[in-house]
Design a protein that fits this description.
Blueprint (H helix, E strand, L loop, with lengths): L15 E3 L4 E5 L2 E4 L2 E4 L1 E5 L2 E5 L13 H5 L6 E5 L9 H9 L3 E5 L1 H13 L4 E5 L4
Amino acid sequence: MADTPETRPDRLHDGFVPGRHPIDAYGGGGFRFAEMSHRGSILALPSGVRAWDVTEPAGITPQSLSALVAEAGEVDLLLLGTGAEIVFVPDALRRFLKESGIGLDVMQTGAAARTYNILMAENRKVAAALIAVP
């Protein structure tokens, strides 16, 4: 069978690409990873990269991070990319993550994507929640 976009194993299925993938590029409202482009924000988790419907920091809630918490045993650190600017994260969200056993580092999306790539390459137990930037 030919390797078409429909048969490729890394094809986006319901907003999810299984496996760990470095972030190849960001900007223009999206990301490049796994030889594909995605418009919008993403969660890069140990199980794979998934579409994340958060478009601004106010949308970062325990509910929006439920996929992350489901993998809490595989994640020691969440890199939170809050867009073009670093944004204050409420103490309640910090406590929620800490109670889930997940550390938090907040930074601009570009810095978070670059840091994620480095830590992932070192086989660290890292995840990234990245808000897309224009």
